[in-house]
């Protein structure tokens, strides 16, 4: 532990961009309320230091209320934090441990538990000692120490978002794909809300493929996700003094960069590419690590299909990795706003793909036999009558128009029979029928006439 603390304290302070001033109505994370007993020393004071007119118990109650509403992150602050993370990565080469930090916060998710935060996942719980001390998280205290100054600088973002932001940024900065991330994750506020130990995978289980499925299926992920995400081991090293896996050092790790030592899965372990799959497949270099769970990717037939593909085709790997990573980073998270928000002005690639292409002119696009009834325009009764075309049959024999209730109402709900009868009666009273649009707006004319008469009467009366 002492060694880790020393290592962390040697790291340069990161402050490339000034903290943006909190917006007029800042969204603040729970941990940044100085009025609360839960406040960490060093957190920026968002609430003003003006002397309060209220007694402490009132301020505490106010604070509890704010805590209950503790919203997620401020987009401007997240963007600035991303710049700081980039600088941190450049100066400390901490890409791998940031990826592991994000994954270990979200990977505790259990899809069989509905309640938040009991279900685990990306909720910032990994900042608490209670969870950091889980065996699987050995060494992640170093990641927290690196990222804490950025958290302190930007009180308007949550740990949950910051961990995932750091992970996605690390992948991208290492040469990996752009990940279609969203933000707005809410933080848990107390150590008691941490998930129980044992939800993350073990590197040396009895039957690795079964174990991987058990763990990742519990998160709602599938075989493709398992293989793609394992590709994150293209970055980083395993250290015997942390996980117990790997060599003390190899020719690839003895000189760093960063703290020397450990055993990497790939020769260039700060570069994100598909070399992990190539190296695991060949297993030729004794200096490169292959965990039992890594080897399983080329042993299990379903995993193997993906692993082979990724070894051959880096583009396919990047595409699947980006999707799987985005899914992983959302696991179990409670978003505020509920749909989350993106930091990029450009929509992510997959959002674009999901957008419907601009509709071609209806007549040209649809073959004649597939031509659909145009959506009824939802307009008030009178207007519907006034705007209905006289003849939309292209000269064919006039067909009686069916009674389309939605045409005569604001909502899409079907009208009751009584209402239909009433409407029909009203039409028939003025010589029309709802089956055939009237050529003139009788209702409007009558209303205008009544209005005019009323106006004249009042003039005469006065
Ligand atoms: C498939 C099951 C997985 C197992 C059994 C596993 C196991 C391990 C182990 C034992 C280490 C070494 C930790 C140390 O000694 O410091 C490690 C490191 C790492 N893992 Fe995994 N992992 C798995 C999945 C993942 C996933 C899904 C990701 C990310 C998406 C990931 C990212 C990393 C990274 C980047 C490192 C290097 C950390 C560093 O260099 O500090 N792993 N993993």
UniProtKB/TrEMBL annotation:
Originating species: Oryza brachyantha (malo sina)
Transmembrane residue ranges: 442-461
Region (Disordered): 1-24, 232-264, 336-375
One annotated Gene Ontology cellular component of this protein: chloroplast
Top EC group: oxidoreductase
Compositionally biased intervals (Basic and acidic residues): 238-257
This protein's name: L-ascorbate peroxidase
Keyword Transmembrane helix: yes
Example GO molecular function: L-ascorbate peroxidase activity
Cofactor(s) named in the record: heme b
């Amino acid at each position: 532990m002492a060694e880790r603390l020393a290592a962390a304290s040697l790291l340069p302070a990161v402050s490339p961009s000034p903290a943006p001033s909190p917006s007029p109505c800042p969204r603040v994370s729970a941990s940044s309320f100085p009025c609360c007993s839960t406040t960490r020393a060093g957190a920026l004071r968002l609430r003003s230091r003006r002397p309060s007119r209220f007694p402490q118990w009132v301020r505490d109650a106010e604070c509890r209320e704010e805590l209950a509403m503790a919203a997620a992150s401020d987009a401007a602050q997240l963007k600035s934090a991303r710049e700081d993370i980039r600088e941190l990565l450049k100066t400390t080469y901490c890409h791998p441990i940031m990826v592991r930090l994000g994954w270990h916060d979200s990977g505790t998710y259990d899809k069989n538990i509905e309640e938040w935060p009991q279900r685990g996942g990306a909720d910032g719980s990994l900042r608490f000692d209670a969870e950091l001390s889980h065996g699987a998280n050995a060494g992640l205290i170093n990641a927290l120490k690196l990222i804490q100054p950025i958290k302190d600088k930007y009180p308007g973002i949550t740990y949950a978002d910051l961990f995932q932001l750091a992970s996605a940024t690390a992948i991208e900065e290492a040469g990996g794909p752009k990940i279609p991330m969203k933000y707005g994750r809410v933080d848990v506020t107390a150590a008691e809300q941490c998930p129980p130990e044992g939800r993350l995978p073990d590197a040396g289980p009895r039957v690795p493929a079964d174990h991987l499925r058990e763990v990742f299926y519990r998160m709602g992920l599938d075989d493709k996700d398992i293989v793609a995400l394992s590709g994150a081991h293209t970055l980083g090293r395993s250290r015997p003094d942390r996980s117990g896996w790997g060599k003390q050092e190899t020719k690839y790790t003895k000189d760093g960069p960063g703290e020397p030592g450990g055993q990497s899965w790939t020769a260039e372990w700060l570069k994100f590419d598909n070399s992990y799959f190539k190296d695991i497949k060949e297993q030729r270099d004794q200096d490169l690590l292959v965990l039992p769970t890594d080897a399983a990717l080329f042993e299990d037939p379903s995993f193997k299909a993906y692993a082979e593909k990724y070894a051959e085709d880096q583009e396919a790997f990047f595409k699947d990795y980006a999707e799987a990573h985005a899914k992983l980073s959302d696991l179990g998270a409670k978003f505020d706003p509920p749909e989350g928000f993106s930091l990029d002005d450009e929509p992510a690639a997959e959002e674009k793909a999901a957008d419907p292409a601009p509709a071609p002119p209806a007549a040209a696009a649809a073959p004649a036999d597939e031509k659909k009834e145009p959506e009824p325009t939802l307009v008030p009764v009178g207007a519907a009558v006034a705007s209905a075309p006289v003849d939309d049959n292209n000269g064919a024999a006039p067909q009686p128009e069916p009674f389309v209730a939605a045409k005569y109402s604001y909502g899409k709900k079907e009208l009751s029979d009584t209402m239909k009868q009433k409407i029909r009666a009203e039409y028939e009273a003025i010589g029309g029928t709802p089956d055939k649009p009237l050529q003139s707006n009788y209702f409007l004319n009558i209303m205008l006439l009544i209005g005019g008469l009323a106006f004249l009467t009042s003039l005469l009366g006065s």
